[in-house]
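User: Can you predict the 3D structure for this chain?
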Amino acid sequence: TAPEVLVIDAGPSVAEVALACRQLKNAARTRAMLLMMLADRASQVDELQSLELGVDDFLAKPCSVRVLVA
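Assistant: Here is the predicted structure, written as structure tokens:
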């Protein structure tokens, strides 16, 4: 079975990782999985594109463990 949550460290390539997230959301086996993306840079464009492609939450690094768990 697929994990319930996947935390992805996008590093500087947010657009490429966002496309991979869209593929995960389109696959029957991983469709219900929650996707959280951590990114080095958090431009509003990157965040919106990621959310539109299926990312459930988008966090800019560095973020605290408290924020990640919340």
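The mean pLDDT is 85. The beta strands are 5-11, 34-39, 57-60.
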